[in-house]
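Changelog note: in this version the structure field was regenerated for every chain. One regenerated record is shown below for reference.
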Amino acid sequence: MTATPDAKPLKGLFIRTHGCQMNVYDSERIRDVLKPLGYAPVDAPEGADLVVINTCHIREKATEKVYSELGRLKQMKLASGGKMTIAVAGCVAQAEGAEIIRRQPAVDLVLGPQAYHKLPEMIARASRAVGDRLETEFDTIEKFDALPKTRDPDGPAAFVSVQEGCDKFCTFCVVPYTRGAEMSRSVDDIVAEVRDLAAKGVREVTLLGQNVNAFHGAAPRLEGGADWTLGQLVRHLSKIGGIERIRYTTSHPRDMDADLIAAHGDTAAMMPFLHLPVQSGSDRILKAMNRGHTADHYRDIIARVRKARPDIALATDFIVGFPGESDADFEATMQLARDVGYAIAYSFKYSARPGTPATGMHGHLSEDVKDARLQALQSLLRDQQTAFNQSCIGRTIPVLVTGKGRNPGQMHGRSPYLQAVHFEGTETQLGALVDVQILAASLNSLSGDLVRVRETAA
């Protein structure tokens, strides 16, 4: 990396992000926290001054991938003469902090998802070889207070964290133990962040939370009164100039209230896309999972959302092979998927996570049974996703242009339904809203011809 005259050389920062959108957002804020210290992003870990692995603890294989990656980074650190600093952040760090340091001594810093605002202090301690290398306290409010108030967005779409933590305690999930209790940011803080992003050209925001629709943020100071719900927040953010699109993820059926459902129909900026994880179609398994809803309750929510917004596209999460799941339980899951019809769905085999109640349950299924059920479910879900994408052929849909495509002269963006859309265009259209006539569809994307540029980039 080169430096300008009279300027200190920038230090290379490489961040590898695993897992959910919350981790993507956290990685962006880690970059913001380190920018004042002279760190600038680089494209590869080789030669970087600081490497941060932002981890996910949802599945066992993801955790083992982290340790494998740390082994490779150890060799890079040795090649650098020990100049490379290695930090492990995120949920694996929260759950296994001391074990990471024991298992891989090359790691310099370990910090949980509520402590990354302390990175500058931790780096300073590491350089002096004094103080703790491990930070895993739950101090979410302190974290948001300490973060820089402005951000440098990467494009016309940005994530905004509005809620963190989980009080649901699903029996298969580690999130309550790695992210802490539910906490919502104040409306004023969120509005200030979104206004700053809009002023920098962001046109689409995705509101993030482990249970984002459990949001209950403090009302604006000028209004006071009771905490606001997510529906109120969405309507308020939609009035900010420049913000054309609003999404939110991930939601929980228990927190899908009537006002939020109504917002899907009465707020133009709300995109017609809802990710609402169900996990299983069997009431018996849902109870064992401690989900707090039944399959019919979930179907009723979907019906009410579709009544409010008939063109909505739906996404969900499924877990197959949960302890005790019978053939009838699995068939109930297949039937729910057939009944709802998803534009996209994420499905996984049950994976025991240490410390969760499900780990000690009776009736764990063999890998062969779980594999067979997952393949059957994914085949159905692929057919649904393909059918939804093909239903877009012949339509002209608005696309927010987010970047260049792989081929020369190709641009890509996102449809209102969160599909990737490719078309021939120019870089001048980056950040613009354009209309694209869809001519072809695959499992994962759409392609078509540019019809017109609706609005130029802000």
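Spot check on this record: Residues 11-139 form a domain with the Rossmann fold fold (CATH 3.40.50.12160). Residues 1-8 have pLDDT under 50 and may be disordered.
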